[in-house]
Amino acid sequence: MVRRTLRLLAAALAATVLTPLGSATASATPPSTRTAHPTASRVASPAADTCAVKSKPAGALVAQAWNHYGGALKGLMTWSLNWDGSRNGTFGDNARALQGR
Hints:
Radius of gyration: 31 Å
Oligomer: single chain
Number of helices: 4
């Protein structure tokens, strides 16, 4: 009984999938009637060139600030010595931020 059900299911699936594919390839226009240079139907819009996600800025100091503040959103924690500049020879805000984790 299971074999018969699987055989009927396979036949129905093949008929459903292969019939539209066969009719689509059979009804396609022959290559001789196609135009040599197809026209572009899609026009590039200025909105397609923009991105909603800000990229990482260039430059060493700017990249450090990006990793320190923006990287926290991604779960990254970058180490920098004396980030805030108030204590000499000690770790700055990074050590304080890691104490709670």
